[in-house]
Specification:
It is built from 13 helices and 6 strands. It is mostly helical.
Length: 351
């Protein structure tokens, strides 16, 4: 009789364990269903600027929204590098004067200035009896010149931006570990500026693999590929100021740490003067090139190119300035209708 009771107890305990396991699995499935399934190119957070004249972004609110969406990012990987990149007075001024709203406001002012200049010039050298003919001609010429200048400014905004995009390279190097990319994009909407800091989901593994395969296929013409990189990236030189370090007090360790923090930036041969021939306490100005070194393996070159153009690509993607792929094969790692990041680099740099 005792054996039967003990056997019944064991069966009841096993049933309870099975029920708990089923409940745990059900809760996990429900939790997984609640987690959003992000795809490459999908905007996770868009944080508008707090002010038009003094552009700044609420990074604490960005963190709260990212945590709500399931992204747990340390402060050293988000707030610290973003403040270093964007929270600078010169960068804020550049954001204001290079914004789409500023260009939109300057268009009529530019037209008036051009009209007055052309009218004064023609009036001095050409005598016209009918002033309406002169005014009409001046207006047409002024409209044409204004449109040309605006198109030149719009075209320049499609290129990589040294003041914003390059400064965000180190930020994206940290965020890509969390499958995020960041960029600053703006456009005019309803006669008002729309400058925002965008966090976009992006799994870099497939793009890295595809671009690495492309570089490996071009390995037999490595000299031509390196010449293309130098021709199209040689103008991308980042100038930084490093604090003066006393070589007798651990200077070599700090220099090594600073180099480790810049995996994409290497010293140029034309580096500035060393600490021996500059005033004591002065900052050292260093030049870093964004051209991948020829001795790097294909995967390292691909990673550097992806990081270099990450902010530019996200900015063009969200402002809908990327061309749609017509002759490229269908991709299974990118759901966007526009060019993928790896395809953008192939078209922009490697062609």
């Amino acid at each position: 009789m005792m054996e039967d009771k003990s056997g019944v107890c064991h069966v009841m305990e096993e049933n309870r364990v099975d029920v708990q396991i089923r409940q745990t699995k059900t809760e996990q499935q429900q939790a997984n269903n609640n987690v959003p399934k992000w795809s490459n190119g999908q905007c996770v957070v868009a944080m508008p600027s707090c002010s038009i004249l003094k552009p700044s972004f609420d990074l604490s609110l960005c963190r709260a929204k990212l945590e709500t969406d399931g992204f747990q990012i340390p402060v050293i990987d988000m707030e610290a590098p973003l403040k270093t990149a964007l929270d600078v007075p010169s960068v804020r001024r550049y954001l204001v004067f290079n914004s789409a709203l500023f260009h939109f406001a300057m268009a009529p002012v530019l037209y008036v200035v051009v009209w007055c200049g052309v009218f004064t010039t023609l009036h001095l050298y050409i005598s016209v009896s009918d002033y309406w003919v002169l005014c009409l001609s001046v207006s047409l010429v002024s409209i044409f010149l204004t449109i040309v200048i605006i198109f030149v400014l719009q075209y320049s905004n499609k290129e990589i931006n040294m003041n914003i995009d390059v400064r965000l390279i180190q930020v994206n190097e940290r965020l890509v570990k969390h499958k995020l990319l960041v960029a600053v994009a703006d456009w005019v909407q309803s006669c008002s500026g729309n400058m925002q800091l965008y966090f976009v989901f992006w799994d870099m593994s497939c793009c890295l693999r595809a671009l690495t395969e492309t570089l490996e296929e071009q390995s037999f013409v490595e000299d031509d590929t390196q010449n293309k990189l130098k021709r199209k990236l040689s103008h991308l030189v980042l100038v930084t100021e490093d604090a003066a370090v006393d070589p007798e007090v651990g200077g070599s360790d700090e220099e090594q740490d600073s180099c480790e923090q810049r995996p994409l930036l290497r010293h140029e041969d034309t580096e500035c003067s060393t600490s021996s021939n500059r005033p004591e306490g002065a900052n050292a100005t260093n030049n870093y090139s964004l051209v991948p070194d020829a001795s790097l393996p294909a995967q390292a070159k691909a990673y550097q190119l992806l990081m270099t153009y990450s902010a530019t690509y996200v900015r063009l993607l969200l402002s809908e300035r990327l061309p749609r792929p017509s002759h490229y094969p269908q991709r299974n790692h990118c759901s966007t209708d526009h060019l993928c990041l790896c395809q953008y680099i192939k078209k922009k740099i490697l062609r």
